[in-house]
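User: Could you check the structure of this?
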Amino acid sequence: MAFHGIYDVAGEPSVHAYEALMRGPRGLPFEGPMLAFAFARSVDLLAELDLECVRCALASAPPGRRLFLNVHPTTLTDRGFETVSGLVAASGRAPAEVVFEVVEHGPDRESELLASLGGLRRAGFGIAVDDFGEGASNLRRLLRVRPDYLKLDRWFVNGADEDPDRRAVIRAAARLGRDLGLRVVAEGVRSAALLDVVRTAGVELVQCFRYLPPGLVDPLAEGTAEGTCRQALDPAAPDSPVLLGIDSFAERDLDALPFGVIQLSRDGTILQYNRYEEDLARRRASDVIGKSFFTEVAPCTDVRAFAGRFREGVARGQLHVTFDYVFAFSPPKPVRVTLWYSGATRTGWVFVQG
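Assistant: Sure, the predicted structure tokens are below.
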């Protein structure tokens, strides 16, 4: 387990809590949680892996700190809230020290999920709604769950120092939190400029990405090991788990990857465009999907070294090449690009590591 700090920045920055994160063996494909949980789901062991993560987090979390634990909705509905609350009781932690963080879920069995969350609340546990503003996390569900914490998805935070629309969403979330009596956590704060944005908006709790607020000492800050996860998922490697599973990745899986991902039809039309690439290129997916990547969206790539390689590889039905490139942004952006062609879906993929 790794422990990611949630910091209170209302005054002098301090550690408010830690969120427990699963990490597999370093350097292997399952180092990060995404592929591990996808595999567990495919062999009907999702609840077992979920509960094992809860056990490990409770056993190794720093004492005397509030602990956020991710739990999948199906674990609560299939195993019941008594199962996870029993694990907490066995660890010796008081319910008031634990916040259960509910990840995205669909409308199926929502009444059962709400009943389980109600049981946890009555037992004294805190409740957090994760990734608010993304996927199934909506206002109706927020009012039904009535969490103690609302975690604003990092997409709205990334680039908010330069995007007035995202700043408006952060201010709205802060106001919503005040009106509903819950605490808002801004995810993905990665710079002093973004910290200033969320503070000014009235958000007092943050989760940072490779950044610590000035004056804060957190001995566990290096535990997230984001760099090693990036290495394990590197699409340049011929046996990369990204290449092995990309055709079955859902939109959420693509958005979780720590680099840009663009899926192209054989003629170069954009089919998918993940969140990292949106932030890198400052272009919304809704503005580019259906357009030609090489001639309409990124004409600087319509050259032999980029588009030429893609077209030749597609024509051969075989493409896997990595090279350095410079996108003609303002200022120009040097990146590392991997092009890959999937014969199974007859589509091409562009991976951009900034």
